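Figure-free illustration: sequence to structure, shown twice.
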Amino acid sequence: MSEGRKVEKKSKIQGTKEEIRLGFVVSEFHRDITYQMEILGREHAAFLGAKVVRTFYVPGVFDMPLAVKRLLELRNSQGNDEVDAVVTLGCVIEGATEHDEVIATHAARKIMDLSLEYGKPVALGVSGPGMTRQEAQERVDYAKRAVEAAVKMVKRLRRLRAEEEGSSTESSEIGSDESSEKSGGERMR
């Protein structure tokens, strides 16, 4: 019985006990590519034990920051956050001007700012700039990487919060969790 309690405590600290709720912000521009990204992202979220609870479609990558902000602000009927993290999915394909670089740079910067402002992971699953359509097609797996990053960050932030609440004086490493093992990915430091 004591062994069962240890396992339960470990799960709670790692954040695996609570469901991870993701919001997706998906660009409709180049929808043939972003549709594939969305499907891959949803499949990978399920594989990792996370649930996509909201999907917000935006016209293009430039429009993502406002949608990300709204998802981060959502509360459920009990007043709790509706999503634990947001995953952005899109692609910015090179054109005749440097427009793609401007869009990708500013969208990425604002998405990062929102993550810091709200204290929640916002994963960048946007490929580009400087890509051809074929290169964008070859990079649809960016969706899986973004979902994995969001899930890892939620788990690690939950573990850090649990350790802070337990005011553990032991030094511990934040960065190891079962999603790395499950996907065969490397540990982030």
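We now fold a second protein in the same way, so the two outputs can be compared directly.
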Amino acid sequence: MTPDKGWQRRFDEPIPLPRGRQLVTLEDAAKYIQKLPKADQQLDEWQAAVEALLLSSSSTGLPCLRASAS
């Protein structure tokens, strides 16, 4: 898989996080969301983010994100 496809696809601009960290790829964002408390993951804005990640990555997506996005 090439770096610009699937979960390795990079954002046009990294997403800044607290303490100087950044989300650089779709995979970084997916892992970040997975580490959020379950109640936060269920908020509409995070559900929308999951849907956007799935659409941006591939038709299959990560199984654990597909399940939480349902």
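Summary for the second example: The radius of gyration is 12 Å.
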